[in-house]
Amino acid sequence: MNGQMKKYKDSLSSMQGPILLSQCPDIKLDLRGLIKYAKKKGVKVIDLTEGEKASFVKK
Description:
The chain has 59 residues and is mainly alpha-helical.
């Protein structure tokens, strides 16, 4: 086994397990509205400000 593969295997062994959906907080996102808003503004979703994105998150 070469050095890169050993580092990869070591990183996998120290990594946490997957997060189950039931462990995620109950947050709803209006993704359709977010995308529509970004298109209307003429920008990509990634280019919106955090405040603009947060307005589409419902708890």
